[in-house]
Structure to design on (120 residues):
């Protein structure tokens, strides 16, 4: 994802990861996260994808712990729950609070989240 500072585009390649999300105001765009995991094969070629990334857009990246950690009932944090958290005024804080409230206990996996925003 190297062009974000110099153009209105972002380039990325995915390796079977979670779906990156672009936040545009109150709109959410789920990007393609498909592809073989890194080092699955010696000669794996990864497709470079390009999407618009304009001023005030944000990019949300997260590890699978966010969407695979069940609560006491066995329910996971859904895509709709993520979308609702990401379109708030403070998406990073909101998603952490909502996830913590949903799980309400220690998680067994590592949780990584990253929110990058492009300013004017």
């Amino acid at each position: 994802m190297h062009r974000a500072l110099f153009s209105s585009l972002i380039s990325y390649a995915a390796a079977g990861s979670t779906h990156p999300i672009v936040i545009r105001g109150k709109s959410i765009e789920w990007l393609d996260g498909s592809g073989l995991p890194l080092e699955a094969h010696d000669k794996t070629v990864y497709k470079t994808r390009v999407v618009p990334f304009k001023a005030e857009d944000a990019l949300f990246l997260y590890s699978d712990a966010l969407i695979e950690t069940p609560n006491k009932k066995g329910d996971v944090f859904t895509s709709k729950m993520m979308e609702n958290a990401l379109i708030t005024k403070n998406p990073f804080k909101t998603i952490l609070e909502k996830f913590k409230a949903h799980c309400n206990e220690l998680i067994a996996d590592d949780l990584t989240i990253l929110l990058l925003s492009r300013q004017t």
